[in-house]
Amino acid sequence: MHRFFFDLLVGNIVKIDPGGMVFEHAKATFVVADEMARHLFVWRDDLRDRDAWIRVRDNTGREIYRAAVWAESAERAGWDQV
């Protein structure tokens, strides 16, 4: 089992996840990050029109995934294709 961290990025402000969560497989964190981003879109209207992301880091601090806080219907490009 490995520990992963889910940070909130808003523009150039970073809110670090201090505790993280334990998962057996890294790909499971992608689903969790996407769900967190959807939840923030619904409940945090102050993040909707901003450059907001959930960043997943492994226990070495390496970023492995990002999920953007945006509407499902909005056109979007993958974070790694910008």
Keywords for this structure?
disordered C terminus, 82 residues, alpha+beta, 21% helix, 5 strands
Question: How would you explain this protein's 3D organization?
Answer:
It is built from one helix and five strands, in the order βββαββ. Strands 1, 2, 3, 4 and 5 form a five-stranded antiparallel sheet that branches. The protein has one domain (2-68). It is α+β, with helices and mostly antiparallel strands and 82 residues long. It has one helix at 27-43, and strands at 2-10, 13-15, 21-23, 52-57, 63-68. Mean pLDDT is 85; it is low at 77-82. This is DUF6894 domain-containing protein.
Cα(first) to Cα(last) distance is: 32 Å
Average pLDDT level: 85
Distinct helical segment count: 1
**CA-atom Rg in angstroms:** 12 Å
Helix content: 10-25%
Structural class: alpha+beta
Low-confidence segments, ≥5 residues, pLDDT <50? 77-82
What is the number of E strands?
5
Q: How many domains, as an integer?
A: 1
- Coarse morphology: globular
Q: What kind of sheet is the major sheet?
A: 5 strands, antiparallel
> What percentage of amino acids are in beta strands?
25-35%
Encode the helix/strand succession as letters. EEEHEE
